[in-house]
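Hi P.,

Sorry for the delay on this. The queue was packed all week, but I finally got your sequence through. Input first:
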Amino acid sequence: MKAMNRSRKKKSRISFIYFFALVFFAAAEIIIIRNYLDDSHESIVADNTVKEYKISDPENDLLILVNADNPVPEDHEPDLTELSNGQSVDSRIYPDLQKMFDDMREQKIYPVVGEGYRTAEAQQKAMEDKIEAYENDGFGKKLAKKLAAEQVAAVGTSEHQLGLAVDINADKTKSDNDEVYAWLAENAYKYGFILRYPADKVKITGFDYEPWHYRYVGKENAEKIYSSGLCLEEYVEGLAEN
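Then the structure:
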């Protein structure tokens, strides 16, 4: 009888230990799964944050990021300087723009600003004109709008509304576009301008390659962007992370 009681007590202790072990390992597994889910959630949040491309330095509005996800600030009112051909630009970029054009002309290359600052109304008209052009080429209205949106920004999402972007083409009486674009690609950063929509960054910028569209960001920023091979979205994102 005593031996039987000892056996029962022993089995009871073993059962208790086994039960405790099961509880312990179950709790540990729950903690591991919870940590895994937490890590996964943080990773997803980080990825979404990267894609939003928020302005990294509000005090330096030369780096204002304007694209489909980042509209022109509602209170943005540039101080404009009118050019000789009637186009206007933010007055802060004028000295470097003029210097760049003077240096190009000394090298027998003759640029003109085809487009500078645009009002919201002018931006809307640019979109409507592009849609109409595609429709005249035989495209249906829906496809015409889609194609136009790949080349013209919607109102409120165009850098031209900042006054910091210029479309630079050739004075066709003296130069051709190819030599103007080639010179700008190699030298514009020295004057504070960057190629805004590079051919290898279409998926990031959302725009096709535009060898004529340059954005003023200041000489220091332009040199860093040029030497790094980044586009403005990537550069602003990097500043935000640092």
